[in-house]
């Protein structure tokens, strides 16, 4: 088995929670640099299948190069995971035994300065995970209205200084277009009081997160994809989701809760009628967190949360 060179968060924990069957069909919805995919694949027999998704052409190409030739039971699919049902149908797959999501931007995307994901590098305002799409961070920053900027900074970044930051951007772009990450960082700093800038990490972190989420429609894609994955899951199959921000974790928590909850029934009903039991149950009531050791060796793990849901096995007649 090849060595993992990318520090994949909750690597073994997430794969273990999938409860992998050697001959099962599995989906890695977020290929990245293939950390989780390779571990899942190592637990499959030749009869098992793994389909790995990524909308980033560079990620697909790097994995194909690094692990060539790919095993016959491993298929890479360049697509947004929101298109999971249609993409798998093209492969003749209508049901799966497990789906794994490792959300957020991968470390290589942050480290490639020209992609514009990071406030640590001066680069064009881009932030596209799929380089073929038209919407970029530059378009949002320069063309979206003040109210739209305020909405995404509040909703996707939970930035309490969203209004003054949006005003700084509005004034600056009236003079000339805002082109680079460092130009935007300076405007964000100008919109935050000096005392607030001295605490709580980098002052641009929340706005950059908000822009990335908006550029890639991350929450919309996640909601659509999770809904499709729940429908495709075979009895006894599991979905495991690793999140790194509260917005994503809240969405996953609510969707999993709704799927595993009993519908409203008359008070005092002693037994749920057949057909009213939920189709799913939560494998863990509370999210699984990385160990202290993992957080020490991989800083990216400090905010990670893993939630797992399982489709109930079909009852025998």
UniProtKB/TrEMBL annotation:
Record SUPFAM superfamilies = Putative methyltransferase TM0872, insert domain (SSF81799), S-adenosyl-L-methionine-dependent methyltransferases (SSF53335)
- Fetch the Pfam families from UniProt: Methyltransf_5 (PF01795)
Q: What is its main location?
A: cytoplasm
Membrane-spanning parts: none
Record carries keyword Electron transport: no
A molecular function GO annotation: methyltransferase activity
The Swiss-Prot or TrEMBL record describes its family as follows: Belongs to the methyltransferase superfamily. RsmH family.
**In its UniProt entry, what is this protein called?**
Ribosomal RNA small subunit methyltransferase H
Which organism is the protein's source?
Lacticaseibacillus pabuli
